[in-house]
Amino acid sequence: MAKNTICLWYERDAEAAARFYADTFPDSSLTAVHHAPVDYPSGKAGDVLTVEFTVLGIPCLGLNGGPTFKHSEAFSFQVSTEDQQETDRYWNAIVGNGGEESACGWCKDKWGISWQITPRTLMEAIAAGGGEAKRAFEAMMDMKKIDVAAIEAARRGN
Hints:
By secondary structure, the chain is α/β, with parallel strands linked by helices. It has 2 domains: about 5-65, 2,3-Dihydroxybiphenyl 1,2-Dioxygenase, domain 1 (Roll), CATH 3.10.180; about 75-155, 2,3-Dihydroxybiphenyl 1,2-Dioxygenase, domain 1, CATH 3.10.180.10. The chain is built from 5 helices and 8 strands. The protein has a 4-stranded mixed sheet with strand order 1-4-3-2. The chain is elongated and about 60 Å long. The mean pLDDT is about 95.
């Protein structure tokens, strides 16, 4: 196990979530499934307790901890995309698998984990500052899934 691992709390579907991430994102995998040795507050001996997985190279641990805690937008995975095709692929995979759209490139998967599907051109525009950043940011504010062509047009001042 990595020295520093993100632990994500799931009600009961940590393994299904990890398999979805492994199937959706490159450099992602489900590496281990651990079963509870005894009964615990939200499960029984033999139930999947934790899963070890990576998402885009980031080590994670999924804990089936029951319904006590819920995810919020205070934590999200930000995925940098190269073009509209990659943006669409990740967005559609998350939203189309029981997730939901939000604003400004944010969406949630069906387990409540927030994702920012962020085209590189948007981050470059914001980093550039000045009018370019202002135009790109204003364009983004009206979007759910980011429209790469619209961001690039805003960067140019069109």
